[in-house]
Amino acid sequence: MEKALIGLSAALAVGIPALATAYAQAKIGSAGAATIAEKPETAAMMIILEALPETMVILGFVVAIMLILQFA
Q1: CA distances, 50 to each of 11, 34, 38, 64 (Å)
Q2: Entry pTM
Q3: Taking the CA of residue 10 as centre, how many other CA atoms within 13 Å lie in the half-sphere pointing to its CB?
Q4: How far, in Å, CA of 72 to CA of 65, rounded?
Q5: Taking CA atoms, which of 3, 8, 10, 21 is between 20 and 30 Å from 39?
Q6: What are the chain's domains?
Q7: C-alpha span between 11 and 3 (Å, rounded)
Q8: How far is it, in rounded angstroms, from Cα 57 to Cα 19?
Q9: Each residue of 33-48: pLDDT tens digit?
């Protein structure tokens, strides 16, 4: 039972930030496309802003790996 809860917590550590990142990237992507259409010089900034939420998923993945390895 303990391993099942560890697996569930590791899955939630990746899944919840992934959903939040998907939502954020959808909003940033549509706003970024509109911004680039009006001002093409902002393309580099929009690419950075689009990649920024991915750090949440990466950190969630690190937490999941730490959970799994600590209790393995």
Answers
A1: 24, 13, 17, 24
A2: 0.80
A3: 17
A4: 10
A5: 21
A6: 2-70 (1.20.20.10)
A7: 12
A8: 9
A9: 999 999 999 999 999 9
